[in-house]
Design brief:
five-stranded parallel β-sheet, two-stranded antiparallel ribbon, mainly alpha, flat, 7 strands
């Protein structure tokens, strides 16, 4: 069941940057510099909770005086907010003088004098919530305080509901005046974006929510945290949809300000809510005229805008400040009233279109919607078809798809309609293709292929069968079924020079490769010849990529690169974004492994290309999810997390969502958040019906890693063996499978030894594993130096894990070699893990570790700090404490490596000391009383000045050795 959200808890959602800025304000106050900070935003956006959390994190020496203004309607209590704040001073053990409120005109001076004296003893923070309700005297006192001396330990923090501050509000002038004073900062607290909304729902529900639930909540709440909480009250973690209607608390919260409007303004806004889009006063005169005085409409609109209910756009139209207000008002109307108003709007918009002017897409779509809501079936069908054409012509592909889908539904009740059902399905298919609605497109293709009289005949059927194969893959419903693609080749062979035949041949080659069958090269060559002759951009793109795959598989990746790159260009010409993503992956695969920064950067550029071209977000999300996976593999978890936010910023669709979930699960497991990793993996399993059979995804490897990290070795071994023994070529992340299987066995053996249980059965399983798989699984297409180093490192890891299982006396030197191999392979997570095992073996199994163990320990700690790999950090710190090995302290000023890294400022040297000691951004920020954002800026400057690749490289440089920069390398294995 939903539980209250702890807004002051450790996982405060989506406000890290805001908290850092507030922490900087408090740090400045503690340092003797007066500061004022004003936070504005909608009701429920989290202003009060944000300030409360920042204050809770402040030093205990800070005296925090907290008060709030109240929305009193029939009376005004002067200085109410300050009285309440100064009452809280008693709890802070700094009670205000009892005579303070008797001072009369001198009150501002006395308050200023008292707070100044208090600030000499300790820092003082005066917090006033809801300034929009404060009386003028309170505002005057605050103005006097803010204008006081800058060199004192006094801070003022205020919050403002900007939806309650209209044009004539007394706070407008006050805010304008106070912003001009020195030391005053402001911040508008925005609603949460979609990823943060999803994260908040996960915190409320106790598990990551389903994608459809996130979409519905975000569409209604627009990211308002309080409304999110009310919307999902009572829901379970597995629920996929919001219930019908609104909870009473939600209605009260949404309509609080609306209740204060005049009856006329309330009536007018109800009419607007039924209208469904931004409306001008002229539009409302036409629709509301029978029951509303047209001359009073402008005043009613202005009053609703001043109350924060409506927003006035630059074009003179009005619409609701929050979408839930419109939805709540419309649902509150009687059904007959709603129907009557929908009819009135439909009549008005039809009159507009009778003028012969070019129809506006929004107007035609609204007209179709109003006819539908009014129950005018024939008119709703006719206008839906018109609206679909107009929307498609204006690029509103989502509206076009919605209109056509409605027309298809309405067609069943209109036997006299002249449009054939299959024609409507084909129009839905085209609209779904342009909107990136893969599931709807697949449904329409299935309907078309099930029809007996398909327009276009055998060639059209062949093209649809190829597209169905792509969509089945993208939605997790199938993996390159060879019988279907062979049938497409057979059907299209009747026109051997057609683009459909070239497309079918290209994808036959592609599918054959995935099924590890011989003979993929011949159809690729034939497809390219036919496609070039046919001159179709789409077919040529797939043919070029098929040729690139064939060259790369044959060991000629350099020949594959230009073919795949040309395939990407042809895909953009065709606006086939599936083909573009496909060609991009194979451009990368021919250049180098996906486990490289170069591959991640390639995907980053391709993602930006998709955005620039206006591609549907599902394709952008897919690229972003795989970009995140590559950045994660090379240790850049910050870029990984940023790419995941892009993937989940809008509805990612099934293929983007599953990729993002898998990478999020791996990141969480590596950083020690095991419950989070498990629920992400569970959601990924829910999204796709097939998992292990989808060789382009890394379900089994990540499932094995998640279970191993969480201490479930039996489940880890089973998942790893499932991936290693599946049919076809090795899946993505195949290199991890056998090492994780061996790790799972070693963990079980260690547990058995610790408990005195027999180990013979487990050791026999380890022997069987090695007999069956003498070496790891790896790709054999277009190997390059970097990938060869990575394969070597995984081979050593596999052997080291088997050695850990077999040798009760440890195998420290073997683990040390493994750590060095992963360093040379630029895979820092595995390097850190190998360091941990090396130190463990050297220290705990009777070896004479000497200086080597200490070096490995500090190296592992530095890696763990940079990666925020908490399980490895905790294990190494425990080993260090047990062996009494000192962890590197922050350097004293006299020991700084200025000669090694000249040209740094004193503050940069301060930061560098902490980087060398392996401190995190947060630890550095707290130690130096600055924000994490400032720390990040200094470290960026350090990286630029020193040429270091990352923080780890910077620490190595500062420790007097030249950085072992990333090895040059290149090729890959399998498309992501």
């Amino acid at each position: 069941m939903a539980k209250p959200l702890d807004n002051g808890g450790p996982d405060f959602i989506g406000r890290a940057a805001d908290l850092a800025e507030l922490a900087g304000v408090i740090s400045a106050v503690c340092a003797g510099r007066a500061r004022t900070f004003l936070i504005s935003g909608d009701a429920g956006v989290g202003k009060t909770a944000l300030v409360a959390k920042a204050c809770a994190a402040a030093s205990p020496e800070v005296a925090i005086l907290t008060g709030a203004a109240l929305p009193l309607a029939s009376m005004e209590v002067p200085l109410l907010a300050l009285r309440s704040a100064f009452r809280s001073a008693g709890a802070a053990r700094v009670p205000a003088p009892s005579h303070l409120w008797e001072a009369g005109p001198e009150l501002p001076l006395l308050i200023d004098e008292w707070l100044t004296g208090l600030s000499l003893e300790r820092p003082v923070l005066l917090v006033v919530d809801d300034l929009q309700w404060a009386d003028q005297t309170t505002l005057d006192v605050l103005m006097y305080l803010v204008a006081g001396p800058e060199e004192r330990r006094l801070g003022v923090i205020g919050t403002v509901r900007h939806d309650d501050v209209g044009a004539g509000h007394k706070l407008v002038r006050w805010l304008a005046d106070i912003r001009r004073l020195p030391g005053v900062g402001t911040r508008t607290l925005a609603p949460l974006d979609r990823p943060d909304t999803e994260a908040q729902l996960a915190a409320i529900l106790g598990a990551p929510p389903h994608r459809t639930l996130v979409n519905e909540v975000f569409a209604r709440s627009a990211g308002n945290p309080y409304l999110n909480l009310l919307l999902v009250a009572g829901l379970e973690a597995g629920d996929r949809h919001l219930p019908a209607g609104f909870p009473p608390d939600l209605k009260s919260a949404v309509l609080r300000s609306w209740q204060g409007l005049s009856p006329e303004a309330q009536k007018l806004t109800r009419i607007m809510a039924v209208g469904g889009k931004a409306t001008s006063g002229a539009d409302l005169r036409e629709v509301a005229a029978p029951s509303f005085d047209p001359e009073r409409i402008p005043a009613a609109l202005r009053s609703a805008a001043e109350a924060g209910i409506l927003d006035l756009a630059p074009d003179g139209t009005y619409w609701f400040h929050h979408p839930l207000i419109a939805e709540t008002l419309e649902l509150a109307l009687d059904a007959d009233d709603r129907t009557s108003l929908h009819s009135a709007f439909a009549t008005y918009y039809e009159r507009q279109l009778d003028g012969g002017t070019r129809p506006d897409a929004a107007v035609v779509v609204s007209l179709a919607d109003h006819h539908h809501q009014a129950g005018h079936t024939a008119d709703a069908y006719r206008w839906a078809l018109v609206a679909a054409d107009v929307a498609r012509g204006s690029g509103a592909n989502g509206d076009a798809l919605r209109m056509l889908s409605r027309a298809l539904d309405l067609r069943q009740g209109l036997p006299d309609a002249k449009e054939p059902t299959l024609d409507l399905w084909d129009r839905v298919r085209q609209a779904a293709y342009e909107a990136g609605a893969l599931s709807v497109e697949l449904e329409s293709i299935e309907a078309l292929l099930g029809g007996s009289d398909l327009p276009g005949g055998a060639l059209a059927r062949a093209g649809l069968m190829v597209r169905r194969m792509h969509l089945q893959l993208s939605t997790g419903q199938g993996f390159f079924p060879l019988p279907d693609i062979r049938e497409a080749v057979r059907l299209s062979a009747a026109a051997p020079r057609s683009w459909q035949h070239a497309l079918a041949l290209a994808e036959l080659s592609h599918a054959t490769m995935w099924h590890n069958e011989p003979g993929a090269e011949a159809p690729a060559r034939q497809a390219l010849a036919v496609a070039r002759e046919a001159g179709d951009h789409r077919a040529l793109s797939y043919a070029l990529t098929a040729a690139a795959i064939a060259e790369t598989n044959a060991g000629h990746p350099q020949a594959g690169i230009p073919l795949a790159a040309e395939g990407a260009k042809e895909a953009l010409q065709a606006r086939d974004f599936w083909a573009f993503v496909h060609a991009t992956y194979w451009t990368g695969n021919a250049k180098g492994p996906w486990t490289s920064a170069a591959y991640a950067d390639l995907l980053h550029r391709a993602r930006q290309e998709l955005v620039d071209r206006g591609a549907p977000h599902g394709y952008t999300a897919k690229i972003a999810a795989d970009e995140a996976a590559s950045y994660l593999a090379v240790g850049d978890w910050r870029k990984c997390r940023a790419a995941l936010r892009v993937a989940l910023g809008f509805d990612p669709g099934p293929m983007g969502d599953v990729g993002a979930r898998l990478t999020a699960a791996r990141l969480a497991a590596l950083q020690g958040r095991h419950d989070e990793a498990s629920v992400h993996l569970h959601r990924a399993d829910e999204l796709y019906a097939e998992t292990s059979g989808l060789l382009n995804l890394d379900f089994d490897a990540i499932r094995a890693e998640v279970n191993a990290a969480a201490g479930r070795p039996e489940a880890a071994f089973e998942a790893a063996l499932t991936g290693a023994t599946g049919p076809g070529p090795p899946p993505t992340m195949c290199e991890w499978l056998l090492p994780v299987a061996a790790r799972a066995l070693a963990d079980q053996v260690q547990r058995a030894r610790d408990t005195g249980s027999p180990t013979s059965g487990l050791l026999a399983t380890a022997n069987d594993l090695q007999d069956r798989f003498p070496g790891i699984l790896h790709e054999r297409l277009g190997e390059t130096e970097l990938y060869r180093r990575q394969v070597k490192a995984f081979e050593l890891l596999y052997a080291a894990e088997l050695g850990r299982a077999r040798n009760p006396n440890g195998n420290g030197p073997e683990w040390a070699r493994t750590a060095d191999a992963f360093r040379d392979a630029s895979l820092p997570w595995e390097e850190a893990y190998a360091c941990r095992r090396a130190v463990e073996s050297l220290l705990l199994h009777g070896h004479n570790p000497g200086h080597h163990a200490a070096q490995l320990l500090r190296r592992g700690l530095a890696l763990a700090a940079e990666l925020q790999a908490e399980p490895i950090r905790e294990a190494l710190e425990g080993l260090a404490a047990r062996a009494r090995i000192p962890v590197v302290p922050v350097a004293a000023n006299g020991q700084r490596p200025a000669a090694v890294l000249p040209g740094l400022t004193p503050r940069e040297l301060d930061i560098l000391d902490h980087v060398v000691a392996g401190r995190t951004y947060g630890e550095i920020a707290r130690a130096l009383f600055i924000s994490e954002k400032t720390v990040s800026s200094h470290i960026s400057n350090l990286l630029r000045k020193t040429g270091a690749a990352n923080r780890l490289d910077l620490a190595r440089l500062a420790s007097a050795g030249p950085a072992s920069g990333p090895p040059a390398g290149a090729t890959t294995d399998r498309p992501r």
